[in-house]
Q: What sequence folds into this?
């Protein structure tokens, strides 16, 4: 993807993600991974999950942070603005439409049934994003596929840090999770 046509395609991709990612940022991340990594190979899986980790640790909505990061990575600041607008615009349109009509519709059985169907689907998409992050962060899936050796599968340093972070959060209740996130960032820069 190059030039204006590439930016338009990027806008359409993120408009699609924003339109169908009901359930929050991790659902949007699942869609982004499917499109940007698996379908178009614009980002590697490891790069995408690194971007997701940074997006989760920065203030603001994860989906919008990730969209901005992806756009900036692919097309610089202009790409970041385009992807952010593409991600947010469907929600703005839907909110404006729903706010006009929702009070009359919320008690209708069909609307309630639709929401009942969306909840489990959303939970599944969040689970897929979480499992994907864990597999890439703690297990070296790519290396395992190439060598077939079980010992190459584990990312020992990441597993050790994960265990330390878990102990810190569970045993020392007064430690704020932000400090563990900062420790993770320092660990990633220094040891990975």
A:
């Amino acid at each position: 993807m190059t030039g204006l046509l590439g930016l338009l395609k990027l806008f359409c991709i993120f408009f699609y993600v924003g339109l169908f990612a009901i359930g929050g940022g991790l659902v949007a991340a699942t869609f982004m991974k499917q499109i940007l990594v698996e379908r178009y190979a614009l980002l590697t899986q490891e790069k995408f999950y690194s971007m997701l980790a940074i997006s989760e640790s920065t203030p603001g909505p994860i989906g919008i942070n990730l969209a901005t990061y992806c756009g900036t990575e692919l097309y610089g600041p202009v790409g970041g603005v385009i992807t952010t607008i593409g991600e947010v615009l469907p929600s703005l349109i839907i909110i404006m439409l729903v706010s006009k009509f929702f009070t009359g519709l919320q008690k209708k059985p069909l609307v309630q049934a639709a929401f009942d169907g969306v909840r489990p689907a959303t939970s599944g998409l969040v689970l897929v994003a979480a499992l994907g992050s864990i597999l890439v962060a703690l297990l070296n899936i790519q290396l395992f596929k190439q060598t077939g050796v079980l010992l190459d599968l584990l990312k020992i340093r990441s597993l050790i840090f994960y265990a330390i972070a878990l102990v810190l959060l569970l045993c020392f209740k007064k430690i704020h999770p932000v400090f563990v996130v900062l420790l993770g960032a320092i660990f990633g820069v220094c040891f990975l």
In short: Confidence is low (pLDDT under 50) at residues 146-152. The longest helix spans residues 62-105. The two ends are 31 Å apart (CA to CA). Helices lie at 3-20, 25-39, 45-57, 62-105, 109-138, 141-147, 156-171, 177-191.
